Amino acid sequence: MSDLLIAAGGGGDPVGTAIVHAATSRDPHAVIATYAWERLEVDPTPGPLGPAAFTGWGESAGGHRFTGRTTAVPPAGSTLPRLSESLGPSLLLLDPYQGVPGLARQIRRAADASGCGQVRIVDIGGDILTHGDEPTLQSPLPDALTLAACATAGVTASVHVAGPGLDGEIPEGVLLPRLTGGHLTPTDQDVRAAAAALAWHPSEASALFAAAATGRRGTVRTVGDEVRLTPASGQVHHLTLDQALAHNPLARALYQEQPGSLEDAERLALRTCGFSELAREREAAERLSATAPASRAVPVPTSRDQVLYMLWQSAPGAGCVTFRYAARVLGLSWRDIPRLRELTKADGPLLPLVM
What we know:
Layout: E1 4-7, H1 13-24, E2 31-35, E3 54-55, E4 71-72, H2 80-86, E5 90-94, H3 99-114, E6 119-124, H4 141-153, E7 157-162, H5 172-175, E8 183-184, H6 188-192, H7 195-198, H8 205-213, E9 218-221, E10 226-229, E11 236-240, H9 241-247, H10 249-257, H11 262-273, H12 277-290, H13 304-314, E12 320-322, H14 323-329, H15 337-344, E13 350-352
Parallel strand pairs: 1-2, 1-6, 2-5, 6-7, 9-12
Antiparallel strand pairs: 3-4, 7-11, 8-11, 9-10, 12-13
Helix pairs in contact: 1-8, 3-4, 4-9, 4-10, 10-11
């Protein structure tokens, strides 16, 4: 028997999910199921990737398992094969293209293979508890699909919200009143369970969660905005599946209507929330492909002092920046994060602006 967790939002959620797992269980055979649904800078193709977008799958009774030999078929890209080597739990693919019934079958299969009594759904940031009308909401569909599919699969599931507000979609002050269950704060040792991944992965929400859990406070500059780390930023709150569904109208609609394809789920999201994140991704991907790579405005710095000075100028008032933000400001890609960490001698998930 092994633990089964679901990284509800895809992207960098498996990194934060590994921290939650370390804080709640010591099972060395744990499995994390996740979407291959990442930012365009990682995967220039819009929307999630299905099994056919990869080669080199590992063997698993629970589904398609990522290994270090798994490769995304160009032009697609993914951090998940490398994450499978950086995190302790195994990683399984969630494929939403067959809609809620298809996802439910995948989750049921993974749960049966693991023999777990309860599935733990983990969301970094908290948009899994969206009411659908928050003005800063960006990506409600993956989390809502997860909730609806778990309910359809009939698995016993709990929902864990880590780092309330850190994904920039629902502000902490709006989200905290919805978190009426208990909570815990991971220890430094728990965070170290994801240290190898945090050393190179571009996830900002998981990095902010890890930093807050280890005591970092204050203003952090991210690619999208400034984020204030508070004591609540390092917490993990838990709810029941029914409680999460009661908050999320899109998840309830998906559960009730059982769309049999991602396209049908997208139409339901457009009707429920008033926008389609998939349409936004397609438009952004078209703009990206039509725009020639911008030349660097400044030379890439070669010393720690140069890096910190340039970042300090770009983010006045911030005590830290994310490595993804730092790489973008310096004209680097997210793949250069290890190089940037080495240059600045930074050993945490964020880069402090210490002059």
